[in-house]
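Possible regression after last week's pipeline update?

I re-ran a chain I had predicted before the update to compare outputs. Posting the input and the new output here so someone can diff against the archived version. Not blocking, just want to make sure nothing changed silently.
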Amino acid sequence: MSTGDQCVFVRHDRFSEARGYPAIELMEDIALSKILRRRSRPLCLTPPVTISGRRWRAARSMAHHGADVVAAPALFSWAPRPLGYLSCTKVSTADENHEGLRTQGSAAAQPMLVQIFAKAPVPGAVKTRLIASLGERGAAELHCRLLRHAARTVALARVGEVELWTTAGADPALLHDITGLSGNPFRMQPDGDLGARMSVAIADGLARAPGVVLLGVDVPGMCAEDLRQAREVLAHGYDAVLGPAEDGGYWLIGLSRRARGLGNGVEGEAARTGALFRAVAWGTPGVLQATRERLRSLGWRWHELPVRWDVDRPEDLRRLAADPQLAALVADLMPRA
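New output (post-update):
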């Protein structure tokens, strides 16, 4: 069974299907092993593994051995276990100080700012397309649970400061209870359409942090590894990062202060980021493609995270209830057949 002292190679599509490491505080490596084991049998290798961030970035590829997972057996206090899935290995690091990351400056070690965008959990004002299935209070409760789930995932990622951008009618005590955020991390979304509100929030964040990631709470499949990857992307020269959604939108967008001229105060940030968000048909299947075209026209480099699905329509409730890792979010809210 996979633990933290092993080296496990997993195909990107399989890792994405498993939604990365589960958002739990302990034994997430073992939990991931169990998920992958249900999908395919691994190929277990015998040599020890020496890893190097520099070599990985140079090669960017591995030979495919006809298996979805490649693992190496144990080198130290325990023997390989005949589980047909993962054995253990002691992993040594060729560059313990991650010199390959450090060569591009200290940005890799700098935390980014995470902005959670969520409406105030007011019954009748949130998850309106699910009210017919759950009722006003049920839809509001689901919204609270998705917000709590997103906040916990962000906390597990440990990528930087977190703030919640919410709307009128929010009860600070309730939001503290839901999110577990300490201090005064709540900010009010400004007026305007979704693009205008996101533009103001990101510009505000970039005036305070070298990188900002803004995300919604409707994507329960988001994992901590997604956020860590977003931070690394922005820290190593990319201007933007996107989290594509199945419905043609995106569930995450991040920008770096270094992005082609950003960094001249809030007004300067707003002028540049505004180009990404103006005149977009929000809520339609063309949002993601329109954003890609804007990024391309700006000459910015961007990276895309795994595609995720969001909970927005009645059929999404059934999909949520059928997922053993996420069913608890909705199980007691669904009407009985």
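Follow-up from reviewer: compared with the archived run. The chain has a mean pLDDT of 78. Marking as no regression found.
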